[in-house]
Design goal:
Largest sheet: 3 strands, antiparallel
Shape: globular
Distance between the termini: 39 Å
Radius of gyration: 16 Å
Helix content: 10-25%
Length: about 70
């Protein structure tokens, strides 16, 4: 079963409304060193959700290297 990541700053609409507007998103770690979820709150309007994947932490078995013939 997948692990549930909870963050009170991003979990509810009212908690996200209390965040300060910033040019940088608020990131939360979903998979250590690999996957992050972000929320960017603008000065006005609706916020945007972002996903970030860290390519440096990818395992060698998932690399896109061509196979030898």
């Amino acid at each position: 079963m997948a692990r549930t990541v909870r963050d009170s700053n991003l979990e509810s609409r009212t908690a996200r409304a209390r965040l300060e507007s910033s040019g940088q998103p608020y990131y939360r770690n979903l998979e250590p060193g690999l996957l992050h979820l972000g929320y960017r709150k603008p000065l006005a309007g609706a916020g945007k959700w972002l996903a970030r994947r860290d390519k440096r932490s990818a395992s060698p078995t998932t690399s896109a290297t061509p196979t030898a013939r």
